[in-house]
Write a structure and sequence with these properties.
The structure is a homodimer of 606-residue chains.
Chain A (H helix, E strand, L loop, with lengths): L2 E4 L7 H11 L3 E5 H5 L5 H11 L2 E8 L7 H21 L3 E5 L10 H17 L3 E5 L10 H11 L4 E6 H5 L16 E6 L9 H8 L10 H10 L6 E3 L11 H18 L13 E8 L4 H9 L3 E6 L4 E6 L2 E6 L10 E8 L3 H10 L17 E4 L5 E5 L13 E3 L19 E10 L5 H12 L2 E10 L2 E9 L6 E6 L11 E7 L2 H10 L9 H10 L4 H10 L2 E4 L4 E6 L6 E9 L10 H12 L3
Parallel strand pairs in A: 1-2, 1-8, 2-3, 3-4, 4-5, 5-6, 6-7, 7-8, 9-12, 13-15, 17-20, 21-24
Antiparallel strand pairs in A: 9-13, 10-11, 10-16, 11-12, 14-15, 17-21, 18-19, 19-20, 22-23, 23-24
Chain lengths: 606, 606
């Protein structure tokens, strides 16, 4: 279907917004009046700019506080409308959004509203303009879509129809089934926005927390399906006001916006995209650093061995069980120290995964490949992390491991003491945690769901000594791939955007002891934590003493137990050892406040 | 009264919080459990630290999900409580906060709740500990203070009382009058927090938006008065969770917190502070810059004349009517260009103003004074702006103008062309607008109200192309002093923290023409704005053309009209010319989006 977006959804001046919207691939725009008023482009210039960019002007909005008023106010309002019709003619726009009135002088009289809207439509028609009347959720007398439709029906004018807005309808809990009763040709426009479920004053909710479909908790897809079912053939248009988007870059927000519409079309059964190839596990995690020595020490202590090196890139493979870490020194000039720059995910069909990614506008990463390198495709997540689609065990497509040559074990630089003696206690990567840039939390969640087919858990707030950390996990249904997305509550939160790799073990006590014996510290956890653990759970005192000795944290849910501990942080990166038993599903959120406080203290050298 | 604060109200590790709390001047603290658990100090060490700092530990909190449970859960909960009693004995704390249960296993049975709380109180009493039972606003079965008191009354144990919390009570709209029915000696504790009025889910509201009393919209003073009236003799204790405070510096937040308690005591009629000396107008605004040439050009164009210079500081006085601007080059090393660093306010009693300021913990600015300088006292506002208390017309205290020597008019450096020819059309400073640092919006508003006795308007959201700007004006009742406090929605909003001085004129068209004739540009306003103005108001076409020609914006309220225009921005500073007629009360908020967009474009050279 035709796809549009309201200019108010993006930040910056109008000309920059239009460029971003066209570049992302939208077909049309709603011109938000304030964007026109505040800019130097005349309506004619905006019209030309849109034509040059291949964008249609699908709607001019909003026109407020028109209907159901005394005669003298009506005369003023009609004069006001005529002035706007003149602007629209200069713009080349032929559809005007009229919102239900919030003016104190409007009266509760549907017949009067219908009569005055008919008059407005008559005037509009003289200019070849049509009117789309919309119920604001906080309208004074008209606040539901069926009420707005009843007035439009009563007015019975060919230039008057209704505009449906998913936020105004779903935020009030209205049932979108009633849309089926509206003739499709009388639905002149469909505006789409999602929002997180919040018990908030609806005006505040609307102004500050709208988000793109799929990023919130409203069933926008069902509403779209109902509207299409009614015979609507106009554009799907996004209208989102959000404190975050208002500050984010227009270009990237426009792409995120179009991705959300593509996924919405799919959810509503209106299009068929290549199905996601849900990954079964992590193939690898790649850490980049100018100096990998500190990482090599920690990996050795965690039981990893340097097993292979890339045939022509400065990349080392470290392995333990099915956990694989790549150390890359190929990117120079990184001052911040090690960072997690890429992950590989195991997928049965990398080709389909890439087609899916491209279909939902994930940026495909251009690769430098050696002549005999395996074909390995990657896309960039919103935070810049590259996601590679791999088939580690298959030598054909994605047989990336064939690009590596085994390192003889005696050639290991800096062999850890007795490196192969303990049984390999880490068997796989349990999860990856990535702190997202301030603007990209919701985009990141939608990206991982839309591109990889992961499912999102609920969002949690974790208490850090310097603010709340919002956290949301996305995971494959069997838990093979789990990614935890974190975001600090504001951009000036202290410190770098941390990332960590959690490694699964069946013997966390043994693994933690080995780390300590190798002389690599684990994050110390305060004794007070273990007093509280004793109060909350009746753990065996010797077991509790062992946990306290090693700094292992403990959590429990209705299914099982979770034990976890942390290494020190190197650059932006640290490692976690985790042991899940009996189907524990979470990530130890209960312990996050203590862990975050301990990390702050540790970094301050306390 | 004794004054306390919960450690959760401040950011950082526990030891830093305790130091900040003691330094601000509090008497005691509530130890929030997570602050203990996440830190390296043992309970004994915390006890010693508090003793060293002169802080009492007035409460340990919270103990959750205790009452009205099946027998096996009760046994576990009592074991859990015993562990906490042990921690409290080590801490030297003798009062435990028990919140009403949110646990799924709790049942709706007041008699059972009372019986189990009596049991808990019995156990506590063996350790010399008392229990304060509090109704959480979102408690499963007990969510109102009168219900919690009914259970406490029924339990009838000397070691069991109730804890009142202004947020939990007022957020539900409960009437605090019922507090009079609780015997004062059974009110074991009183926790205080305010909050902006929001129709928000009460749990989210509580977790993210609590603020210090006087910063929100709840009538905390009436609740305090009712509680004291009931005979309560314990501390007034602040318990505030707020996304902003969690990130702000503990030391300054602690001072703001204590200031709010002092003002609350005053509002509740519990103390008598020196009454504020409400200022009658602005004595001056002081701009600081390494290079004042650009400012001199603009001031000349605005009709100001350089009339005097300070006797021994590098400060020039520029005057027009009663509008006075000081240009100070005495501070070196400012790279950002001119900034508004101080304001003088006219007050009938500077001595009382200073005593008031000191009583509410406003930092008094240490002054370098020449031997014959007038005594001039200043305090620093939260954003660093210095506020001087002046009596310009009186030669005694605060006769600051006597420190300046008149400049002969022929000695004016860079005389503007025909400088004195037009009548002086600016007669006073209408208002000052100061963009506040991210963390200090609410503090700033409370400061200006508490120190200067100004009244606050409602908070407004203004649309900037890169985000919403929150704006709140504080003003004296007669409008003699008006200060507009602005804050961008997040700290990474682009650009410097702008400040501006609005100058009142009776002839804005003449004043704007003069500025233009002097070759100093006014901010250009897009033609589209005037098309819209024409649609909204039926202004005389010639008048409208004049406004468009000069870039003058127009607004109207139920009382009168407002015309205003802007100079270019120099460093952080720009000037506004304003003309109010017939009692218009606002600041042209309707035009803010257009003005902000125009300023962004102008700075980008578009």
């Amino acid at each position: 279907m035709r796809k549009s977006i309201a200019t108010v959804s993006l930040s910056g001046p109008l000309s920059e917004k239009l460029t971003a919207i066209a570049t992302a691939g939208f077909d049309g725009v709603e011109i938000f009046e304030n964007d026109l008023l505040g800019g130097p482009l005349s309506p004619e210039e905006v019209r030309l700019r849109c034509a040059d960019l291949g964008l249609g002007i699908d709607l001019y909005q909003p026109f407020r506080d028109f209907e159901a008023v005394p005669a003298d106010v009506l005369a003023r309002n009609l004069r006001r409308a005529e002035r706007k019709f003149a602007v629209m003619e200069r713009l080349g726009a032929d559809l005007l959004l009229v919102c239900s009135s919030v003016a104190p002088e409007s009266v509760d009289d549907d017949a009067l509203a219908a009569e005055q809207l008919r008059l407005l439509a008559d005037r509009a028609a003289e200019h070849g303009i049509r009117i789309a009347y919309e119920a604001l959720a906080w309208g004074k007398h008209v606040s539901t879509y069926d009420h707005a439709w009843k007035i439009v029906e009563q007015a019975d004018h060919p230039a008057l129809g209704t505009c449906l807005d998913s936020f105004h309808i779903l935020s009030r809990g209205s049932d979108p089934k009633g849309i089926a009763d509206i003739p499709g040709e009388k639905i002149f426009f469909l505006q789409l926005a999602d929002a997180p479920l919040m018990a908030l004053d609806v005006l505040q909710w609307s102004r500050h927390y709208r988000c793109f479909p799929g990023q919130g908790g409203l069933d926008v897809a069902a509403l779209v399906a109902a509207t299409i079912g009614a015979g609507y053939e106009g554009p799907l248009s996004l209208e989102v006001f959000n404190d975050v988007f208002r500050q984010a870059g227009a270009a990237s927000t426009a792409v995120d916006a179009l991705r959300s519409l593509l996924l919405l079309e799919e959810s509503a059964g209106l299009s068929a995209l290549p199905a996601p190839a849900v990954p079964s596990g992590f193939a690898f995690a790649e850490l980049t650093a100018a100096d990998t020595e500190p990482l090599r020490g920690v990996l050795g202590a965690l039981g990893f061995a340097h097993t292979a090196r890339h045939n022509w890139k400065p990349v080392e493979l470290w392995e333990q069980g099915e956990a694989r870490i790549l150390l890359n020194t190929g990117v120079s000039g990184r001052r911040q120290g090690p960072a997690l720059t890429a992950i590989g995910v195991e997928t049965s069909d990398p080709g389909r995964a890439v087609r899916r990614a491209e279909a939902v506008l994930a940026p495909v990463v251009p690769r430098r490949r050696g002549p005999r390198d395996a074909q390995l495709d990657a896309v960039a997540a919103p935070d810049g992390t590259e996601v590679f689609f791999c088939r580690t065990e298959r030598p054909d497509h994605g047989g990336w491991i064939g690009d590596f040559t085994e390192v003889p074990s005696h050639a290991l630089p800096r062999e850890p003491q007795e490196p192969r003696e303990p049984a390999a206690t880490v068997h796989r990567i349990d999860h990856i945690a990535l702190t997202q840039p301030w603007h990209q939390f919701d985009e990141a969640s939608l990206f991982h769901r839309g591109v990889l087919g992961l499912k999102a858990d609920d969002s949690l707030d974790l208490a850090d000594p310097y603010g709340l950390v919002r956290s949301r996990a996305v995971a494959s249904p069997d838990g093979g791939v789990r990614i935890v997305l974190n975001i600090a509550p504001s951009p000036d939160a202290e410190g770098p955007r941390l990332q960590h790799i959690a490694l699964a073990t069946d013997d966390i006590v043994g693994a933690a002891r080995r780390v300590r014996e190798q002389g690599t510290g684990l994050l110390p956890i305060p004794a007070n934590y273990y007093d509280d653990l004793d109060a909350r759970y009746e753990l065996d005192p010797r077991h509790l003493a062992t946990l306290a000795d090693l700094g292992i944290l403990y959590d429990r849910d209705e299914n099982g137990e979770f034990l976890h501990c942390y290494t020190a942080t190197i650059g932006r990166v640290f490692f976690e050892l985790v042991q899940r038993t009996d189907g524990y599903r979470g990530y130890g959120a209960q312990n996050a406040a203590v862990r975050l406080a301990a990390q702050h203290l540790h970094q301050q050298g306390v």
